[in-house]
């Protein structure tokens, strides 16, 4: 049976405060799973906070796990250092309370939920914090996949493309690219895309590498490469923005997003990406300004 999503929204008003609450419900009857993702928007005296929460009822395990809540504010939502620490701490807490097994099992269902919403909503909604919050929980639970030593200690590094509004929330450790296949794809594409400087950057940086690599590993190779090579230009892949002349804000995260999302296969790739040259692309900088909870259709 296909998974189903339900939505409801409640808006309350009190003296000097406003609160809006919505909940998405993902059901997978075949697996005995009900995922409840809640979003509460609090506005008081011009201070805004969005509190996201996640609970999963699992009939197979005969238990409901409360994955807690995360409070997002203007001061912490773009702070990748704080987000990295928060995810690491929350995973440690979940591990101590539940062990690795249920978190590992539930990571698949949260990812499926995120992909289902991604495939049925428009680009503006995908850029809202409402959807990004679900991706945060997805990244949190995916930590169990890396906890192969079963210690409860997992590192998280949020992709640098998230705070500069280039991609959805994702951690470098969860972006896995096969170097050999990726280079073959780039070489095939290069003759038809001669102005895309990002292609050659990747080919040079990964010249002697052929296995599966996480973005954390690729970032090290790219940074080493650019220590001895010409810096990219504003219109090339890897530049966080699009303008003429030298690129004033380039990083490996933006380069990974530009190339990895060319086929738009991930939940953190926004709508509108196409298999075309990175040169000339425009980037919407407004999506963080979404201030209301947009109902899921």
Automatic annotation (TrEMBL):
Q: Where does the record locate the signal sequence feature?
A: 1-20
* Alphabetized UniProt keyword annotations: Signal
* Protein name as it appears in the record: DUF4214 domain-containing protein
